[in-house]
Design goal:
The protein is an alpha/beta fold. It contains 22 helices and twelve strands. The strands form two sheets. A nine-stranded parallel β-sheet has the order 5-3-12-11-10-9-8-7-6. Strands 1-2-4 form a three-stranded mixed β-sheet, with no helix packed on it. Strand 9, helix 14 and strand 10 form a beta-alpha-beta unit. The longest helix has 22 residues.
Length: about 525
Amino acid sequence: MRAEQADSIRRKDALAGCREPVMATQAECRPRLRGLPNVSSRAAVPHACGVRGTQGGRARKERESMASHGNSVKIGAVELATPVVLSPMAGVTNPPFRQLCREQAEAGIAVARAQRSSSAESAGEASGTGLGTRLTGTASASGVEAATGMGEATGAAASSDAEHRGIFAPAGLWVCEMATTRALVEGREKTLNMVQPDPGDPVRSVQLYGVSPKVTAQAVRILVRNGWADHVDLNFGCPAPKVTRRGGGSALPWKTDLFSQLCEAAVQAAREASEEAGREEPVPVTAKIRLGIDAEHETWRDSVRLAEDAGISALTLHARTTSQYYAGHADWNAIGELVQLADLPVFGNGDVFDVADAKELMELTGCAGVAIGRGAQGRPWIFANLAAWMHGGDVHVTPNLGEVAAIIRRHAQLAAAHYGDELKAMREMRGHIASYLRGFAIGGQVRDGLARISTFEDLESGLALLDPDMPYPQAADGRRGRAGKPKRPRLPEGWLDSRTLSEAERERISHAEIGVSGG
């Protein structure tokens, strides 16, 4: 199927004079490196501590160097030096997981920098540093940051030079779980906790779901005025029945007037709130869309025109319809066509599970970057691989089971600190643990025990039963998450009868808007 998509896109490129592929071609044979560098040094970490935390000229030079060796993308005021986005996932992309993914990407960039250095010895030394001592750590209950070498980076980010704060994302965008606009405006505790940023993230990204332009504008103002977001993404891609049956998510773009009004309201609110907050440039608003409801009711071509007119700064296309859910294959042809249609940066999403997938998608379509969701579940180190590659490096992290156990432990400690509740953190970790252990040959009894943890003691007892020397299995690579089967979309009654919203429909969906965040 990919070969057919490639032929189709190349034919279009030949006719349309497509721009050169964004990513440079890499060698087909890449060594499988388990090591990543010591990232505790300020000089080695291309984070806010290396970019924004230094003085004047040096900070600018670091920023320019990263942009020149990567594929920098501008999203409104935000410069994305590594064009990769962690897609929002309910119950997954909370602050602890986002922090882990960000740290992995930072370490991957550090590898790339070492490999680009004039000294071959530097590259070799960086590649040989053990993953377990730098990324996964040997975290104890009282020393998570010290054990992983990330404490200095995180602390420096929090106190970094304001010159590039909120406008330069060196390692990628790490987007929080979908927050419901109504729940945010009403100040619901779960949603307010959800949008709390990773303190070390230099550009704070929040995705919003809503069906009311007025409420969406209020939610954007809250995020910007409180400094909770430097980038706001609007969700028009969620296929979950509880969302689409209320006219939201991937169902909403069918109503072109509502789609335009919602985008315009969010952009205008971001501009006004940014000015009130004293920002030099407004917080950019982006949108994530799908192909449409089904093959007979596509919306993406209309959406790009309407989004540009509304002032949206970038688009992410999950190249499936609502009815496909996550089944089958993403239509990368559509991403390539969207790139041709759009004047905005386009991020491709769907079926990216490793560097090879990202490379193929970007080369076939010319998209500005990739958004990864299910491919990151249980393996935040995928961002080390991707970031290194995007900056000219060559890394393939393959942690053994002991190293995976160490990152599970660290993840749990970050979760406990975030929630302030050991039981809640352990319950949250149950699903993550299942993803982390995917592909490893672990007995059912051990898996079952780890799926029932309620305390750190339970977690430690379960991890102690794992064989720390078990190598990373091939079965752990490839597709992740539940693909499922195509489903009949759940839509409001009569939704497909017209491309515009009737007053009765507007009234009905405004009362039906869900007040629970998370998708």
